[in-house]
C-alpha cells in the first residue's frame, strides 16, 4: 500500500503523523502552501500545485480548523484515507468516513456514525448511538454521551460534556469544559456549566 500524504504542515499534522506510524504505515510527505520551510519533521513539504505527482497516494487534511478542512476537501481531487490510532478503542459496529482521524486514547462505542474529515481527538469519548456529520471536531477529553447528534462542522471544546439525546447545530462551538444540557442552535457559541449561548458565529461556511 502506498504511503499517506498529509495536507497541512501543522501541530495537528505532527499528531496525525504519529497516528499513521502507530498503524505501521508511513507518511510520504506534507503539502502546505504557507509553510516557509521545505522540510517538516524530516519530510519534504510541497505546494498544492505539485499534488499531481502524488495522485496515487491517499491523503489526510491535517488542519485543525473545521471550515478550512472543508474548503480544502472541496478543492482537492485526491483519494482520502481514514486513520485510527492503534491505542484508540473503536467498536466494530462503527462507521467512520474517509478523511477522519481518531487519536490515541479515544473511545468510540457501538452504533456510532462519524462523517468525513472529522477529528476525534486524544482521549475523547463518543458513546453509543451518536451521529456526527462531516467536519466535526471532538477535542481532547470531551465526552459525548449516548444518542447525541452533532451536525456539520461543529467544534466540541476540550473536556466538554454533552448529556444524552442532545443535538448540536451545524458550525456551533461548545467551549472547553462546558456541560451541555440543552440543544445548541446552529452557529451558536456556548460556554459554562450549564452551557449558555454567548454569541453566534458568522454564517460563512454554508
Ligand atoms: C489538541 C488541541 O489543541 S484541540 C483544540 C481544543 N480547543 C478548545 O477546546 C478551545 C475551545 N474554545 C473555547 O473554549 C473558547 O474560549 C470559545 C470558542 C468558547 C470562545 O472563544 P472567543 O469567541 O474568543 O470568546 P472570548 O475569549 O472573547 O470569551 C467571551 C466570554 O466567554 C468566556 N469564556 C470563553 N471561553 C470559555 C469557556 N471555555 N468556559 C467558560 N467561559 C468562557 C470568557 O471568559 C468571556 O467572558 P467575559 O465576557 O465575561 O469576559
TrEMBL record:
<feature type="binding site">
    <location>
        <position position="64"/>
    </location>
    <ligand>
        <name>substrate</name>
    </ligand>
</feature>
<dbReference type="InterPro" id="IPR001451">
    <property type="entry name" value="Hexapep"/>
</dbReference>
<feature type="active site" description="Proton acceptor">
    <location>
        <position position="128"/>
    </location>
</feature>
<keyword id="KW-0808">Transferase</keyword>
<dbReference type="Pfam" id="PF17836">
    <property type="entry name" value="PglD_N"/>
</dbReference>
<keyword id="KW-0012">Acyltransferase</keyword>
<dbReference type="InterPro" id="IPR020019">
    <property type="entry name" value="AcTrfase_PglD-like"/>
</dbReference>
<dbReference type="InterPro" id="IPR018357">
    <property type="entry name" value="Hexapep_transf_CS"/>
</dbReference>
<feature type="binding site">
    <location>
        <position position="137"/>
    </location>
    <ligand>
        <name>acetyl-CoA</name>
    </ligand>
</feature>
<dbReference type="GO" id="GO:0016746">
    <property type="term" value="F:acyltransferase activity"/>
</dbReference>
<dbReference type="InterPro" id="IPR041561">
    <property type="entry name" value="PglD_N"/>
</dbReference>
<dbReference type="InterPro" id="IPR011004">
    <property type="entry name" value="Trimer_LpxA-like_sf"/>
</dbReference>
<keyword id="KW-0677">Repeat</keyword>
<feature type="domain" description="PglD N-terminal">
    <location>
        <begin position="3"/>
        <end position="76"/>
    </location>
</feature>
<dbReference type="Pfam" id="PF00132">
    <property type="entry name" value="Hexapep"/>
</dbReference>
<comment type="similarity">
    <text>Belongs to the transferase hexapeptide repeat family.</text>
</comment>
<feature type="site" description="Increases basicity of active site His">
    <location>
        <position position="129"/>
    </location>
</feature>
<feature type="binding site">
    <location>
        <begin position="10"/>
        <end position="12"/>
    </location>
    <ligand>
        <name>substrate</name>
    </ligand>
</feature>
<dbReference type="InterPro" id="IPR050179">
    <property type="entry name" value="Trans_hexapeptide_repeat"/>
</dbReference>
<protein>
    <submittedName>
        <fullName>Acetyltransferase</fullName>
    </submittedName>
</protein>
